[in-house]
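ARCHIVE RECORD
Type: protein–small molecule complex
Small molecule: zinc ion
Source of inputs: curated submission
Record status: active
Notes field left blank by submitter.
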Amino acid sequence: MLTRPTEAAYRLDLSGSQARAMNGESPMRALTRGFFSVVILSCAVVLQAGAPAKARVLIITGDDVSPAHDWLSCSSATRDVLGESGRFDVDVVGGAEVLANEANLKNVDVIYLMLYNARTPTLSDKGKDNLLAFVKGGKGLVVTHLSSASFKEWPEFRALCGRVWVMGTSGHGPRGVFRTVVVDKASPITAGINDFQQDDELYARLQGDAPIRVLLQADSDWSKQTEPLAFTLDYGRGRVFHHTFGHDAKALSTPEVQKLIVQGTTWAAGR
Ligand SMILES: [Zn+2]
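STRUCTURE (tokenized, with ligand):
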């Protein structure tokens, strides 16, 4: 069985080569021996370490405007996309009150919001404090579709999302196909993604003034404006990835959107 060599063993091996060189072995042969020793030890380290640990994602779902959003099929589709990437262990829970117990977040790397909670109060103060502390402390948050309309009595949630859907102000035209443009090709979140056609709701007039880094955008016939559809922001020491796709499972089946979900969640996890 291979074991990970200790720092001491590593140093001992190198000093042994040097010692043999000093005792008459040719310097080149000693160097070669040392080189292969390092290679073998390095392989042992790689084999021992194996694949990197998967990031843990907690999808929080639930929707109070059913049947507008079938949160069960949307969260299932998202769980499958993340799980099949091989990068994540994914749990799905219904209802934001899971946030009220910090023990539920202990080993979580990314909280993934797929819910719209219309009723007030929407979340206990403890749940709100825990969500802010989670992100401020250096973890990741993903906000999707109508999730940004949640917790409307909670102003700090607007800052956390960067932009939010405000009932009566934000909107979209009829669901249909629109051209989505990649405006930030340097981000790891958009790597390998070119402009694409998306069959979805084109969210428009989201509200907020926090500095955001726009990744994707589209021209809205409804607002007559160019709208940010995917963007990031920093919050404390944490990372927020916000995309507005996902009216239904069909909208989440677009290959580019699936790639965006995987790469955006990877970025949010700090990987
Ligand atoms: Zn929708």
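CURATOR ANNOTATION: The chain has a mean pLDDT of 85.
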